[in-house]
Amino acid sequence: MLNSRHFNIFFILFLLAWISLDQKMHIGAPAYGWLLLIYLSVLFCGSYFIRLGFFLKSICSAQTQEKCIAITFDDGPAGEKTERILDILKEHQVQAAFFCIGKNISGHELQLKRIIQEGHLIGNHSFTHHRYFDLYSVSKMRRELEDMSQNCHSVTGHIPRFFRPPYGVTNPNLKKAIQQTGMVSIGWSIRSLDTVIHNQDRLRKRILRSLKPGAILLLHDTQETTVKLLPRLLEDLRDRGYRIERLDKMINLKPYV
After folding, report:
1. Up-side HSE of residue 57: CA atoms within 13 Å toward CB?
2. pLDDT band at 87 (very low <50, low <70, confident <90, very high)
3. What is the pTM of this model?
């Protein structure tokens, strides 16, 4: 798989060869603009698509042929919606992973405890989930991760080991922050887009047509559409022969430090 290091080496060698060719054939300056555009486009795609593992290796699925799937929720705890999701999961005897935002824990401490008590796991989704998180320095990113983990520990006694990057964006700074904190980056193989798709049938079809053994499904416990769709979705998964497994068990890694 192409990563940032290999790409940079390849691009430097290619650029040197291009400069040598330009000296002989006088290709001209505009061609260098196109090379720069291609370079920046690859970096953008590498940052935005977490499954590429361009800057940072993330676990986006389990290597298995068994029909199992892990369900994950981002951006909570979110009050009443999270409570309803927990009720649905309890009714269907399903365990999920909740990637929580640290600042959202205040006022929802009992909810966080309920997540643990009912057999689900908590992951780190940064402290603020700021829109400019991917522009932060290494030290600021590390503080985001550590502050969320500290808040979680003070309420539940657990320090999350799993981290999901806000917006799924990765870059060299985040790679260093994750390495320094000893965390494991978790991505997804099915991005539901439930934050923008509010039609239940459309959302359901999008998820089901992407099903594969070992899939990690990304949902959000902040969305009303997701709450309403969840009971039917759980039934659909089982009707298709899928076992819903808790994330840490499916990827065989410890979820807490």
Report:
1. 4
2. very high
3. 0.91
